[in-house]
Write a structure and sequence with these properties.
Keywords: Hydrolase, Metal-binding, Metalloprotease, Protease, Secreted, Zinc. The chain is of the alpha+beta class and about 375 residues long. It folds into 2 domains: about 180 residues, Roll (Elastase, domain 1); about 170 residues, Orthogonal Bundle (Neutral Protease, domain 2), CATH 1.10.390.10. It is built from 10 helices and 12 strands. The strands form 4 sheets. The chain has a 6-stranded mixed beta sheet, with helices on one face. Strand 11 and strand 12 form a beta hairpin. It starts with 13 loop residues before the first strand and ends in a 19-residue tail after the last strand.
């Protein structure tokens, strides 16, 4: 029996661009860059308030079944052109089965939604985000110079970027997969969007967003770049992506963006109240654990590591306030259940978590001690304080 969760945890606006990055641009950018950042912040804050209001009393839509069996899968994609406006839905530009339009953002969104749907269907037998054939809606060309992309519980929304710091937000397939995966997590996992549970939420989206791209490119774990948002940063920006799952903290180091603040190990865990308790910053710790597990398991990352993490998200022992240590324990239990107790798969998962400072044993779960004398907080430069 699948869990049915009340809608209280569905209050977050899931943006690909962390608030601390937008704030840093507003602090360090040129007048035009600051203006674009402030407009982006205003839009994001408005949608967060709307999400909080609409979440009251919401209930999860039941999975669609026919005769006790899952209906045959079929993609349903609808891409709307906002034309620089902010009032939904915009003009329908492309729907399922129609050919390319020549509008690169429309066509990238169409292809990215299709690749994400195909990934979940082909790998996990999952019929869309809700496993019930949910149509996938995307809205491109949103607002003027809007520097973000988000999932609001109903639709994907993409800005065109300012062309100075960010390119169009449809440019990276893993960004599309990341945002849509938030919808899958909302349906499956009761993860609060706060502190470690929220960082797990973000990590799961990074993981499946990366796997969507890897499967589309038919890459093995050792061939993948493990970058989130490669191609998003405009020419002249000193960086390669928004995040690196392989080497957290190395994605960018730029006078306007600041330095990538993500830690790679629990000893560098960032304690902050910003960004819902650091959900985008500390997501790098479980991200790296997944990357390490994928390399140890070999082959294509979605085959074993992806299956283990997917089953962990669906596990009944996952709690709304689940922290890294508990989730690590659940992944080890899922590896044991799927591939045999004490097997190489379980060992790979346990070893991967150990390398980021989270020790998993059969008796208990212990976590590498997080420093408490100095409390890092993200400064306007984008760097954690010393």
């Amino acid at each position: 029996m699948r869990r049915v969760h009340p809608g209280w945890h569905r209050h977050s606006l899931y943006c690909i661009l962390p608030p601390y990055v937008v704030r840093t641009i507003a602090q360090n950018g040129s007048p035009a860059q600051r203006a674009a950042a402030l407009r982006t912040m205003a839009v994001d804050n408005t949608f967060r308030a709307l999400r909080l209001t609409s979440a009251v009393g919401a209930q999860r839509v039941p999975t669609r079944r026919i005769g006790g069996m899952m209906a045959e899968s079929q993609r349903q994609r609808f891409i709307y052109n906002m034309g620089g406006q902010e009032g939904f839905p915009g003009t329908l530009a492309r729907s399922e089965g129609q050919g390319a339009t020549g509008d690169v953002a429309v066509d990238e969104a169409y292809d990215g939604l299709g690749a994400t749907y195909d990934f979940f269907w082909e790998v996990f037998g999952r019929d869309s985000l809700d496993d019930g054939g949910m149509p996938l809606n995307a809205h491109v060309h949103y607002g003027m110079n809007y520097n973000n992309a988000f999932w609001d519980g109903q639709r994907m929304v993409f800005g065109d970027g300012d062309g100075d710091i960010f390119n169009r937000f449809t440019i990276a397939m893993d960004i599309i997969g990341h945002e849509l995966s938030h919808g899958m997590t909302e349906d499956e996992g009761p993860l609060m969007y706060f502190r470690q549970a929220g960082a797990l939420n973000e990590s799961i989206s990074d993981i499946f967003g990366s796997l969507v791209k890897q499967k589309f490119l038919n890459q093995t774990a050792d061939q993948a770049d493990w970058l989130i948002g490669a191609g998003l940063l405009a020419d002249g920006v000193q960086g390669k992506a928004l995040r690196s799952m392989k080497d957290p903290g190395t994605a960018y180091d730029d006078p306007v963006l600041g330095k990538d603040p993500q830690p790679a190990h629990m000893r560098d865990f960032v304690r902050t109240w910003e960004d819902n308790g650091g959900v985008h910053i500390n997501s790098s710790i479980p991200n790296r654990a997944f990357y390490l597990a994928s390399l140890k398991l070999g082959g294509c990352a979605w085959e074993k590591a992806g299956r283990i993490w997917y089953e962990a998200l669906r596990d009944m022992r996952l709690r709304p306030d689940c922290g890294f240590a508990r989730f690590a324990r659940i992944t080890s239990l899922c590896a044991s259940r799927l591939y045999g107790e004490g097997g190489t798969e379980e060992a790979a998962v346990v070893d991967a978590w150990g390398e980021v400072g989270i020790k998993v044993t059969r008796e208990k779960i212990s976590v590498a001690r997080v420093p408490t004398l100095k409390v890092p907080a993200v400064q306007p430069s984008g760097r954690p304080s010393a």
